[in-house]
Every structure is written in structure tokens, then in C-alpha cells.
Design a protein that fits this description.
Bound molecules: zinc ion
Largest sheet: 3 strands, antiparallel
Number of strands: 8
Helix content: 55-70%
Oligomer: single chain
Shape: globular
Strand content: under 5%
Number of helices: 31
Length: 683
């Protein structure tokens, strides 16, 4: 959830700008190589103590951001001469002032955002339009532009230049914390994309989001070849999340489960190839047989229109909006580069190689054989969502609900108990008191989430569903997950070496701690779960989820590579390509395990439509979580959590090397899965 919140915040930031000089024509860069050389030569003449490479980098970076509206070449030259800080002490003084200014700006804008969104986020009674209007208002939307206009951005760019991911990985090995902090300052102004391009993407992305969040299938209107319905009349499922979860839940139905799963998969295939009748999307008025693709009413078959290419048009629109930004990104000049090397900070080829390794491991075949054995039938394509490894707790749901509702009748009760929970997990009392004092617990209107602080003088917020009757077990389980996020947010704000390094490398790292907390929820209730299979089941369950999501991510990445190779493609051409790509990935990595080829199932994910290239982050979340959990096992839990999350925001690989002594790797999960399948008798 946090990821989506961040995405929305970033978009609000990009979208909000409508600066007069950018409205009609794009403001062009105007600093040429000769001017850059003139500046660097002159700066070098003035000092012998400064690293030539650093001057070169700073001036080049500032020049790449300078536009006609910022001034003439001559003005650029004198700006650089006046604002380049040569003595190291002076530069360090300026740096620490910048840190304080940025903490003030980021922190207070974030605090305003919290205040303006309170009624939307919290269970505060009826909503009015005014709540949505304030919620959508972003007070900091013009900040980046203001910082270019008043030239602060150029002072930062000139003195604290941007380092690419490759440079960070190579040079960073020997960097001090101060050098990392300076490099992070350099990330603040890495590109200058005209506001109207950000607005355009915001618009197409909102459209894509509406498209996927308003695409429901009325399950009670689905019929099989005998005209029978198999699902409850009032069951309405959102694509693809609810459809997938319906497949998962039917593993427990030994009577009709398989037929229902088959039917859900038929629906998915109609969505993927867009032969789905438009009259059955968001409507249950007509009966639909998805296998034969026939629509009928009380009088018999009726004609219909197929959806066509709408699904793929959304992706084409996102592609064009994001591709338009390429030329304004001097280093990361494709969206693929910006997503991976920029946001995730792991290069795309590295991601692909890691996924390829796990997807082609011998373990996938072994787990596949185990599932086949447990199901007593050949595998079906949708068994990528096989749900039978979840270890069912031996404690009844009623008992758990009773325990949590009486322990936590309201948000305050959970807030008060956080200190005890941390002590239970191994924290010293005083430190537990500090950490819990920085977290406010509130009853959420929607789903649970954790909102981190952006300055030390700000709380982080834990929000969870809280019915009048008290916190039920499901709400508690989510609250413990969010609590893990809040603990990470507090340590990585207060205990990192510099403000510029606050946080963690990317969202996968906070999810890791959230899941580590969540998996200790019964322990925190004082309950012991004595199922001896539990650890093995959990390992295989995680492994199978990784196998599934890495395949889906492969489709997503290949789709974007194809788009860059075919920039003028139509939605119809993209549809054909997407289905081919999904089948290719299936045939390479799944056909050998499932025994069937040419299945398009991996193309069903809605993320591909509205969160372009986001899917890979989930795989990293799983891997990092597993690696950290395994490393912590047997060690002092609280000490290790404190040590890791106070490292600060290095690159993911540099952080992992410091945290667990190894890069992000498949090896721990592969080894553990091997042991688990052997435990269950598969050699
Ligand atoms: Zn989370």
C-alpha cells in the first residue's frame, strides 16, 4: 500500500505545476560545450585544491538543467563562478545548511499533506466534497519550480552533482557517510522535465487507474455449457485482483472448486485477448458463457461487441507520455532506465538476470511436482496461484478475534501497547519508549497504511481498520505489519548519519521489516503456534509466490522493451505482442513445470496497465525479506533491526552488503526451498 501512496504523492508533485513560461512552448537548454569548458577552465584557474573531475561534473550537471528562461550563457558563466564553493570546509557548512532547509521544506509540506488528508484517511464520519478538494490540493507542488526560479537548484547541482547508479555502485564502495550524503543531495535535481509533460502523464495515468479500478465481473451471471451458474448471485469481482483471489480460495472447495477455477481462467483469457463482450463488464444484466463467449437474456442469445483494444490503449498512452520525458533526462533517457536504475536503483539487465536464474532453477520443477502430488491432478496454468502451502493456524479464528478485540478496543489501546510489544521483541525499555512515542495510531477509513515522517519533528502514523466492536484479528494482523513500517520509518529518520540519507534504498526494504513484524503477530499476543511443518510451508509458499511474480515481471519488462523498439505501435499491435510475450515467457519458464504451452495467463495483471514496470519491486520485496529474516534468525532481533535500518539510504546492493554481508540474491530462498521439498519427500 505504501508504494501506491508514494506513487500518488510523486504524481501529485509532478502534476500540480503549471508555470507560465512552460505553458505554450518548451523552454530549451542553451548551454553549449564551449561555455561549459570556459567555466571549468576558469574555476580551475582559481584553485589548485579542487578535484578537476568534481568541477567538470558539477558544471556539466548544472548546464544540463539550465534553460533559456534561466539566463544567457554569460549569466550562466558568472553564476557558476560566484556559487562554486571551493574550500572543503565551506562546502561542508553549506551542505549542513541545505540539509536543514530541505528537512524544513519536506517535513512541513508532508505535515500539511497529513492535515489536509485527515478526513479522507481517517474514520471521521461523513465525507464532503470539500474534503476531496483539500485532499487533492498539494501545497508543495510548485516547490521544484520555485527552487529553479530562485536558482537554489543550480547551487545544489553545481556543488553536489548527480552520480549515476553505476558511479554510486563503483565509487560508493569507498565513500564515507558524508560522501554518500553529498551524493544523495545530488539526486535532488537530476532532471528537469517540463511541467506539461508531468501533467500529461498524470492525466493518462489517472485514466488508466480508473480503467482498472472500475472493471468488475458479475460472477453470478456467468454460466457454463449447461446454463448453470456456479457463483453467488451478488458476487462482483474486480479484475485481476479479486479474480485471482477467487481462484485461490477455491482450492478449499473439493467439490466444485476446479470447475469454478476453470471458469475464472476463461474470463481472464477473454480479458487478455479482449474478446470479452463490453455488455458484461460492470454489468450482470445478461448471462455470459465465457468459454463459448455467448451472451444471452431470457429470450436466448443476444449479439454483442467485444472490448477490442481498450486495455492496451491505456499502456500505449502511458508509453507516449513517459517517452516524451526522455529527452529531458540527460542520463536516464528511457522510462525503463528511470524505473530501474533511477527509482529502484538496480539496473534492468541485473534484474532480468536474477529473475532468469530463479525461474529456471531446478527447485521450480520440484515444487511443481509437490503441488501436483498434493492436488492429485496435473497442473493447470492458474496453479501459479496455488494456495495450499499457507500454514493454517491451529488456533481458531473466533479465539483470535476475541483476544484482539478485548485487548484493543480502540486505536489508543494499540498505541499504548506498542512500547510493550517492542520490549517483547527484545528492545530495551527506554529505546522502546522513544520509538513508540514517535508513532500515532489512528482508525483508518480505507485500508491500513503507514505514513512516515519527513522531518525529525514529525510523527509517523499507523492507520488500520477499527470497527466499533474493537480491532479484529485481521485488523490487528495488518496493524502489526504497519507497525513494522513505522519502526523502520522512525529509525531511518532519527538514526541515520545525515538527513539526506534518511530512509531506505527503496520500498522493498520497508516491506521487508513490515512482513518480519507481521510474522510475529501471534508471538506478540502470547500465542505459540506449534505446527512443525510451519517453517517449511512458509518457505515453499514464498518461493512459489516469487516464481509467479517474477514471470509476470518478465512480461512487463519485455513489453516495455518491445514498446521502445516499436514506438509507433497501435493498441492492436501491442495486444498481439503482449500475448506473444506472455506465451514466450510461459513457454520458457512454466511449460517445463506445468506441461502445457502457449498459456497467456501472465498477461492478466492490472499493474501492467496502471503502474508501469512496478511489478519487479514485489519480487525484490520477497527476496530482501527472506534474506534479512534468515540473517536475523538466531541473532539479537532488536539490535540487528536497529543496526540495519540506521545505515541510511545507500543503493540497494550497497545497503544489503552492509546489512547482511551479501548482495541481493536468490541463493538463500533456493537453498531453503531445496531443504523444504526434501522435508516433504520430493527429491
Ligand atoms: Zn506494507
Amino acid at each position: 500500500m505504501k508504494n501506491i501512496v508514494i506513487l500518488v504523492m510523486i504524481m501529485a508533485f509532478i502534476v500540480g505545476c503549471s508555470c507560465p513560461e512552460n505553458k505554450n512552448n518548451i523552454d530549451a537548454p542553451n548551454i553549449d560545450t564551449a561555455t561549459i569548458n570556459m567555466v571549468t577552465t576558469s574555476l580551475l584557474e582559481n584553485s589548485e585544491s579542487v578535484d578537476t573531475a568534481l568541477i567538470d561534473k558539477g558544471v556539466n550537471h548544472a548546464a544540463s538543467l539550465w534553460r533559456n528562461s534561466d539566463g544567457t550563457k554569460e549569466e550562466f558563466i558568472s553564476f557558476c563562478k560566484e556559487n562554486f564553493f571551493i574550500p572543503k570546509e565551506e562546502k561542508a557548512q553549506v551542505f549542513s545548511k541545505l540539509e536543514q532547509y530541505f528537512e524544513t521544506l519536506n517535513g512541513n509540506f508532508a505535515q500539511i499533506g497529513v492535515g489536509l488528508n485527515n478526513n479522507l484517511a481517517l474514520n471521521n464520519g461523513p465525507l464532503h466534497d470539500i474534503d476531496k478538494m483539500f485532499g487533492a490540493y498539494s501545497a508543495g507542488a510548485h516547490l521544484a519550480n520555485d527552487l529553479y526560479n530562485n536558482k537554489i537548484a543550480f547551487i545544489v547541482a553545481l556543488n553536489f552533482p548527480y552520480y549515476s547508479l553505476t558511479e554510486k555502485e563503483e565509487l560508493g564502495l569507498n565513500w564515507t557517510n558524508e560522501e554518500w550524503a553529498w551524493a544523495r543531495m545530488g539526486d535532488k535535481f537530476d532532471s528537469r522535465v517540463p511541467a506539461q509533460l508531468g501533467q500529461k502523464f498524470g492525466q493518462v495515468n489517472t485514466d488508466a487507474d480508473i480503467y482498472i479500478s472500475d472493471y468488475n465481473i458479475y460472477m453470478g451471471s456467468l454460466i457454463n455449457s449447461n446454463g448453470e451458474t456456479m457463483f453467488p448471485d451478488d458476487m462482483v469481482l474486480l479484475t485481476h485482483w479479486n479474480l485471482r483471489d477467487e481462484i485461490k480460495s477455491n482450492y478449499a472447495d473439493t467439490e466444485n472448486g476446479l470447475a469454478k477455477q476453470d471458469m475464472v481462467y476463461s474470463v481472464m483469457k477473454r480479458i487478455i485477448d479482449q474478446t470479452i463482450p463490453t455488455s458484461v463488464i460492470n454489468s450482470g444484466e445478461l448471462k455470459w458463457n465465457p468459454v463459448a463467449n455467448k451472451v444471452s437474456d431470457a429470450n436466448g442469445d443476444v449479439s454483442f461487441e467485444m472490448e477490442g483494444d481498450d486495455r492496451y490503449q491505456q499502456i500505449i498512452n502511458s508509453f507516449h507520455a513517459l517517452q516524451a520525458m526522455d529527452e529531458f533526462n540527460p542520463v536516464l533517457n528511457t522510462y525503463i532506465e528511470r524505473n530501474f536504475s533511477g527509482d529502484m536503483e538496480i539496473a534492468q539487465p541485473e534484474v532480468e538476470a536474477l529473475f532468469h536464474e530463479l525461474l529456471s532453477s531446478v527447485q521450480v520443477k520440484k515444487v511443481g511436482a509437490l503441488i501436483k502430488q498434493r492436488l492429485g491432478r496435473d497442473l493447470k496454468p492458474y496453479d501459479i496461484w496455488y494456495d495450499g502451502f499457507k500454514s493454517r493456524s491451529s488456533i481458531s479464528a473466533d479465539l483470535l478475534n476475541e483476544k484482539t478485540t478485548s485487548k484493543y478496543p480502540n486505536a489508543k489501546a494499540f498505541e499504548v501497547d506498542m512500547q510493550n510489544m517492542l520490549v517483547d521483541l527484545g528492545w530495551e525499555n527506554e529505546r522502546a519508549e522513544f520509538l513508540s512515542s514517535r508513532i500515532k495510531v489512528e482508525a483508518a477509513r480505507g485500508s491500513g497504511h503507514a505514513l512516515g515522517a519527513e522531518m525529525k519533528d514529525m510523527y509517523s502514523y499507523l492507520r488500520t481498520r477499527l470497527p466499533e466492536t474493537g480491532m479484529n484479528y485481521k485488523g490487528y494482523n495488518i496493524a502489526v505489519h504497519e507497525f513494522g513500517h513505522n519502526v523502520e520509518q522512525t529509525i531511518s529518520m532519527h538514526d541515520v548519519p545525515y538527513y539526506s540519507m534518511n530512509g531506505i534504498p527503496n520500498t522493498a526494504f520497508t516491506e521487508a521489516l513490515a512482513f518480519i513484524f507481521q510474522s510475529r503477530d501471534l508471538q506478540l499476543l502470547g500465542i505459540k503456534d506449534n505446527n512443525p511443518d510451519k517453517i517449511y510451508l512458509k518457505t515453499i509458499d514464498t518461493f512459489w509466490s516469487i516464481y509467479e511474480i517474477m514471470g509476470v515481471s518478465m512480461v512487463d519488462m519485455n513489453l516495455w522493451k518491445w514498446l521502445y523498439e516499436n514506438p509507433n505501435a497501435t493498441a492492436l499491435e501491442l495486444k498481439v505482442a503482449a500475448i506473444d510475450i506472455a506465451k514466450d515467457v510461459w513457454n520458457s519458464y512454466y511449460a517445463p513445470v506445468f506441461g502445457t504451452s502457449d498459456e497467456p495467463i501472465l498477461a492478466i495483471y492490472s499493474h501492467m496497465i496502471a503502474y508501469p514496470l512496478y511489478l519487479s519491486a514485489y519480487s525484490f520485496g520477497h527476496l530482501i525479506n527472506f534474506q534479512i529474516e534468515q540473517y536475523i534468525s538466531g541473532k539479537d532481533f532488536a539490535n540487528e533491526v536497529e543496526r540495519m535500518y540506521s545505515i541510511g539510504r545507500l543503493t540497494p546492493q550497497a545497503w544489503m552488503q552492509k546489512a547482511v554481508g551479501a548482495k541481493i540474491s536468490n541463493e538463500p530462498i533456493l537453498t531453503a526451498t531445496q531443504a523444504a521439498v526434501e522435508y516433504f519427500g520430493v527429491k
